[in-house]
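Thread amino acids onto this structure.
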C-alpha cells in the first residue's frame, strides 16, 4: 500500500515512521510513503502558498494552485506505478483512481471499519493535510475526494491525523503485524492486560494479577476479558 501525503511539513512524519511497526513495514516494503509539499509547486522565490481569506477573517488560507498541483503529481505517480505493474496486461483501458482523503474536523468519522474498507480496496491513498485556516475550498471541487475526521476536535494541522490513519490502515496489510490475529478487532481483547511479576509491591501495597488469569480456565478467562471490554 502506497500512501501519498500532501503536507507543508513532511519532516513532521520522520519520528513516527522511523520507529517500531511502521518502520519495519517500510523496510519490508509492505507500505510506501511519499510526500508532496505544496511549496515545491510555486514559482515564488519565497515559496509562499497562503493568502488572507476573502471577506476577511483571522489567519491565512492555503491557495488552490499549489495544492492542486501537488495532488495531481500524486495521482500521476500512483497511476504510473499501476501502469508499470500491469505492463504485460491488455485487460484494462482506464487506470484506477487512487483514494483521495481530505482531512477535515467536519468530515466522516474515521473508524476501524473504514480503514479496513480502504486498505482492501485501494493500493494508493492520497491524504491531504491542511494547515492554518484551511485550504481553499475549490480544491475539493476539482478532485473527487472524501472528507474524513479522526474525532470531534480541531488540531493545528492534518499531520497527526494522517499518521493515525496510516497506522490503522497499515496494520491491516498482511505481514505488517507478523500475526494478523494481533488485530484487536479479531480477538477478545481486554482493556486490562498483565505480565510478570505476579505480585508488584509499591509503597507497602501489593498489586496482584487477577486470579482468573492464573487459573488456566480458558472459558472463564475469555468471559473475564469480554466483561472488561465493557
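Threaded sequence (230 positions):
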Amino acid at each position: 500500500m502506497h500512501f501519498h501525503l500532501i503536507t507543508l511539513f513532511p519532516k513532521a512524519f520522520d519520528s513516527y515512521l522511523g520507529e517500531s511497526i511502521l518502520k519495519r513495514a517500510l523496510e519490508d516494503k509492505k507500505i510506501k510513503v511519499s510526500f508532496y509539499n505544496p511549496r515545491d509547486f510555486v514559482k515564488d522565490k519565497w515559496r509562499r502558498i497562503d493568502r488572507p481569506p476573502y471577506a476577511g477573517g483571522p489567519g491565512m488560507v492555503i491557495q488552490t494552485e499549489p495544492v492542486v498541483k501537488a495532488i495531481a503529481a500524486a495521482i500521476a505517480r500512483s497511476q504510473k506505478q499501476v501502469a508499470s505493474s500491469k505492463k504485460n496486461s491488455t485487460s484494462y483501458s482506464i487506470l484506477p483512481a487512487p483514494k483521495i482523503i481530505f482531512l477535515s474536523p467536519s468530515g466522516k468519522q474515521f473508524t476501524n471499519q473504514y480503514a479496513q474498507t480502504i486498505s482492501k480496496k485501494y493500493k494508493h491513498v492520497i491524504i491531504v493535510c491542511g494547515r492554518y485556516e484551511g485550504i481553499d475550498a475549490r480544491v475539493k471541487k476539482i478532485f473527487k475526494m472524501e472528507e474524513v475526521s479522526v474525532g470531534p476536535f480541531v488540531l493545528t494541522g492534518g499531520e497527526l491525523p494522517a499518521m493515525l490513519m496510516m497506522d490503522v490502515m497499515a496494520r491491516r496489510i498482511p505481514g505488517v503485524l507478523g500475526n494478523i490475529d494481533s488485530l484487536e478487532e479479531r480477538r477478545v481483547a481486554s482493556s486490562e492486560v498483565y505480565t510478570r511479576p505476579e505480585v508488584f509491591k509499591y509503597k507497602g501495597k501489593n498489586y496482584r494479577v487477577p486470579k482468573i488469569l492464573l487459573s488456566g480456565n480458558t472459558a472463564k478467562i475469555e468471559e473475564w476479558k469480554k466483561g472488561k471490554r465493557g
